[in-house]
Design goal:
single chain, 137 residues, alpha/beta, Cytidine Deaminase, domain 2, 5-stranded mixed β-sheet, 27% helix, globular, binds zinc ion
Length: 137
Protein backbone atom coordinates (compact mmCIF):
# COMPACT_ATOMS: atom_id res chain seq x y z
CA UNK A 1 0.00 0.00 0.00
CA UNK A 2 1.45 3.38 -0.95
CA UNK A 3 1.77 6.53 1.13
CA UNK A 4 -1.51 7.63 2.64
CA UNK A 5 -3.61 4.88 1.14
CA UNK A 6 -6.05 4.02 3.90
CA UNK A 7 -9.07 2.65 2.13
CA UNK A 8 -9.47 -0.92 0.99
CA UNK A 9 -12.36 -2.45 -0.83
CA UNK A 10 -13.52 -5.87 -1.96
CA UNK A 11 -16.42 -6.88 -4.13
CA UNK A 12 -17.95 -10.23 -3.32
CA UNK A 13 -20.45 -12.25 -5.30
CA UNK A 14 -23.53 -13.89 -3.86
CA UNK A 15 -21.52 -16.87 -2.57
CA UNK A 16 -19.10 -14.50 -0.76
CA UNK A 17 -16.48 -15.30 -3.36
CA UNK A 18 -14.15 -12.38 -3.98
CA UNK A 19 -14.69 -10.89 -7.40
CA UNK A 20 -12.14 -8.09 -7.07
CA UNK A 21 -10.22 -6.11 -4.47
CA UNK A 22 -8.26 -2.90 -4.41
CA UNK A 23 -6.99 -0.05 -2.32
CA UNK A 24 -6.61 3.70 -2.55
CA UNK A 25 -3.86 4.87 -4.89
CA UNK A 26 -3.24 1.35 -6.15
CA UNK A 27 -3.54 2.46 -9.76
CA UNK A 28 -2.59 6.12 -9.47
CA UNK A 29 -2.32 9.08 -7.10
CA UNK A 30 -6.01 10.01 -7.16
CA UNK A 31 -7.71 6.62 -7.34
CA UNK A 32 -10.03 5.49 -4.58
CA UNK A 33 -10.36 1.90 -3.46
CA UNK A 34 -13.91 1.44 -4.76
CA UNK A 35 -12.91 2.94 -8.10
CA UNK A 36 -9.85 0.68 -8.45
CA UNK A 37 -11.85 -2.36 -7.43
CA UNK A 38 -14.82 -1.75 -9.71
CA UNK A 39 -12.48 -1.00 -12.62
CA UNK A 40 -11.15 -4.55 -12.31
CA UNK A 41 -14.58 -5.89 -13.24
CA UNK A 42 -16.17 -5.67 -16.64
CA UNK A 43 -19.05 -3.23 -16.95
CA UNK A 44 -22.21 -5.27 -16.91
CA UNK A 45 -20.59 -8.24 -15.16
CA UNK A 46 -23.63 -10.32 -14.17
CA UNK A 47 -22.14 -10.98 -10.71
CA UNK A 48 -22.49 -7.30 -9.82
CA UNK A 49 -26.28 -7.56 -9.61
CA UNK A 50 -25.94 -9.80 -6.53
CA UNK A 51 -22.67 -8.44 -5.20
CA UNK A 52 -21.69 -6.79 -1.95
CA UNK A 53 -19.00 -4.15 -1.69
CA UNK A 54 -17.02 -4.19 1.56
CA UNK A 55 -15.20 -0.93 2.17
CA UNK A 56 -13.33 0.52 5.10
CA UNK A 57 -14.97 3.92 4.60
CA UNK A 58 -18.17 5.38 3.22
CA UNK A 59 -17.95 5.78 -0.56
CA UNK A 60 -17.19 9.36 -1.55
CA UNK A 61 -19.86 11.67 -2.90
CA UNK A 62 -17.54 14.27 -4.40
CA UNK A 63 -14.00 14.38 -5.71
CA UNK A 64 -11.32 17.04 -5.88
CA UNK A 65 -9.90 15.30 -8.94
CA UNK A 66 -11.93 14.91 -12.14
CA UNK A 67 -12.98 11.38 -11.26
CA UNK A 68 -16.51 10.09 -10.81
CA UNK A 69 -17.47 9.83 -7.11
CA UNK A 70 -17.47 6.27 -5.83
CA UNK A 71 -21.12 6.36 -4.71
CA UNK A 72 -22.04 7.20 -8.30
CA UNK A 73 -19.80 4.40 -9.58
CA UNK A 74 -21.46 1.90 -7.26
CA UNK A 75 -24.90 2.95 -8.49
CA UNK A 76 -23.79 2.68 -12.11
CA UNK A 77 -22.37 -0.80 -11.45
CA UNK A 78 -25.71 -1.93 -10.01
CA UNK A 79 -24.28 -3.31 -6.78
CA UNK A 80 -27.20 -3.80 -4.37
CA UNK A 81 -25.35 -3.98 -1.03
CA UNK A 82 -22.51 -2.01 0.55
CA UNK A 83 -20.91 -2.73 3.92
CA UNK A 84 -18.77 0.02 5.41
CA UNK A 85 -16.78 0.10 8.59
CA UNK A 86 -17.11 3.83 9.09
CA UNK A 87 -18.92 6.90 7.69
CA UNK A 88 -16.40 9.26 6.11
CA UNK A 89 -15.13 11.63 8.82
CA UNK A 90 -14.83 15.39 8.27
CA UNK A 91 -11.07 14.86 8.31
CA UNK A 92 -11.33 14.00 4.62
CA UNK A 93 -14.30 16.01 3.42
CA UNK A 94 -16.75 18.20 5.33
CA UNK A 95 -19.98 17.02 3.81
CA UNK A 96 -19.63 13.51 2.44
CA UNK A 97 -23.03 12.11 1.60
CA UNK A 98 -21.98 8.92 -0.13
CA UNK A 99 -24.30 6.88 2.07
CA UNK A 100 -27.51 8.78 1.33
CA UNK A 101 -27.79 8.48 -2.48
CA UNK A 102 -27.17 4.75 -2.22
CA UNK A 103 -29.89 4.23 0.37
CA UNK A 104 -32.27 6.56 -1.47
CA UNK A 105 -32.40 4.23 -4.50
CA UNK A 106 -32.64 1.03 -2.49
CA UNK A 107 -29.03 -0.05 -2.04
CA UNK A 108 -28.61 -1.74 1.33
CA UNK A 109 -25.83 0.03 3.22
CA UNK A 110 -24.59 -1.56 6.42
CA UNK A 111 -22.66 0.82 8.66
CA UNK A 112 -20.70 -1.53 10.94
CA UNK A 113 -19.54 1.13 13.42
CA UNK A 114 -23.06 2.50 13.86
CA UNK A 115 -24.36 -1.05 14.28
CA UNK A 116 -21.70 -1.79 16.92
CA UNK A 117 -22.53 1.42 18.80
CA UNK A 118 -26.24 0.55 18.79
CA UNK A 119 -25.46 -2.96 20.04
CA UNK A 120 -23.50 -1.48 22.96
CA UNK A 121 -26.28 1.00 23.79
CA UNK A 122 -28.85 -1.83 23.66
CA UNK A 123 -26.63 -3.97 25.89
CA UNK A 124 -26.37 -1.16 28.42
CA UNK A 125 -30.12 -0.54 28.30
CA UNK A 126 -30.82 -4.23 28.97
CA UNK A 127 -28.27 -4.83 31.71
CA UNK A 128 -27.80 -1.45 33.31
CA UNK A 129 -31.07 0.40 32.82
CA UNK A 130 -30.55 2.54 35.89
CA UNK A 131 -27.01 3.56 34.89
CA UNK A 132 -26.64 7.34 35.01
CA UNK A 133 -23.28 7.47 33.24
CA UNK A 134 -23.22 9.30 29.98
CA UNK A 135 -22.86 6.74 27.21
CA UNK A 136 -19.89 7.31 24.93
CA UNK A 137 -21.32 5.42 21.95
ZN1 LIG B 1 -14.21 7.52 -3.69
Amino acid sequence: MAGFAYLVCEVHGTARSELAAGYSREAGPHEHAEEVTLDKLAAGDPHLAGATIYSTLEPCSQRRSPHTPCAQRILAAGVPRVVIAWRKPALFVDDCIGYEPLVKVGVTVVDKLAAAAKAVRDLCARHAPSCKEKCIV
